[in-house]
Design a protein that fits this description.
With about 220 residues, this protein is of the alpha/beta class. It has helices at about 1-20, 60-70, 115-120, 140-155, 170-185, 205-215; strands spanning about 25-30, 70-75, 110-115, 160-165, 190, 195-200, 200. The chain has a five-stranded parallel beta sheet, with helices on both faces. A two-stranded antiparallel ribbon has the order 6-7.
Length: about 220
C-alpha cells in the first residue's frame, strides 16, 4: 500500500512539473542559429572558423533554457535575415523576413524575437511609425515591419509572452524604433550591452552575457 501511495505521489509530482515546464520559441537571425538546430535550408552562422562557439550548449538560448529549466519548442532563426522586407543591396526579402516566418513557432509559452541586426547592417529603410494597414510594400521599411510583426505574433500566439532582444552596437534609429514600437505594444525590450563578439557575432563570453542579461531583465 505504501509503495502504491509513493508511486502515485511521484507520478503526480512528475505531471505537475511537466505542466510547469515552459516552452520557448525563437524567431531570429544568425545570432540564434546553430547547424542542425534550425529548419532545413536555413543559413546557420554557428559553428564558424572565426568564432569560438563550437557547441550548441554554448549558445545564448541553450544556456538560458537550461538555466531556467525550460524546453525548446522551435528555433526559427535564419542567418542574414531582416525583420523588414529589404535585405542587403536593397534586395527584396519578403520570402525570408521575420514576418514571413511567424507561422513556424509551434505552441510556445515564451517567444524571443532577436532581430534588427541585419536591418541595421544592410542600411534597410527605417520608414515611418505605422500601427495599422500594413502591406508587403510598407513592410520594406523597418518601423512598419516591426509593428506588423509584433501585432501578428500577439494575435497568433495570444497565450505566449513576447520578448524583443536588441543587439548592442546598432544604429540609434534602429534602437529608438525598437523602444518606441515595443512600448506601444507593451512588449518588453531587452537592450543588450557589453557583448563580446568575434567576426561580428557573440563569442562564448558574449553568449554567456546574453543569457545573464536575459535572466536579469526577466523577473
Amino acid at each position: 500500500m505504501k509503495k502504491l501511495f509513493l508511486s502515485t505521489l511521484l507520478m503526480m509530482v512528475c505531471i505537475v512539473m511537466s505542466a510547469q515546464t515552459k516552452k520557448v520559441s525563437i524567431l531570429g537571425d544568425s545570432y540564434s542559429t546553430f547547424e542542425g538546430m534550425n529548419p532545413e535550408g536555413y543559413a546557420p552562422f554557428y559553428p564558424n572558423d572565426r568564432n569560438d562557439v563550437t557547441k550548441v550548449e554554448q549558445t545564448w538560448w541553450s544556456l538560458y533554457i537550461k538555466a531556467m529549466g525550460y524546453a525548446l519548442e522551435k528555433n526559427d532563426s535564419w542567418g542574414g535575415t531582416t525583420i523588414c522586407n529589404t535585405s542587403y543591396g536593397m534586395r527584396d526579402a519578403t520570402a525570408t523576413s521575420f514576418n514571413a516566418r511567424i507561422d513556424r513557432l509551434g505552441n510556445p509559452d515564451i517567444i524571443f524575437i532577436f532581430g534588427g541586426t541585419n536591418d541595421a547592417w544592410a542600411n534597410a529603410p527605417i520608414g515611418e511609425y505605422q500601427y495599422e494597414g500594413w502591406t508587403d510594400a510598407s513592410n520594406k521599411a523597418f518601423r512598419p515591419a516591426l509593428a506588423c510583426l509584433l501585432v501578428r505574433l500577439q494575435k497568433q500566439y495570444p497565450n505566449a509572452k513576447l520578448y524583443c532582444i536588441l543587439n548592442s552596437e546598432l544604429k540609434e534609429d534602429i534602437n529608438e524604433s525598437c523602444r518606441t514600437i515595443c512600448k506601444h505594444y507593451n512588449v518588453q525590450l531587452i537592450e543588450l550591452h557589453d557583448i563580446e563578439k568575434q567576426n561580428g557575432h557573440p563569442s562564448i563570453k558574449g553568449m554567456q552575457a546574453i543569457c545573464e542579461q536575459l535572466q536579469e531583465a526577466i523577473k
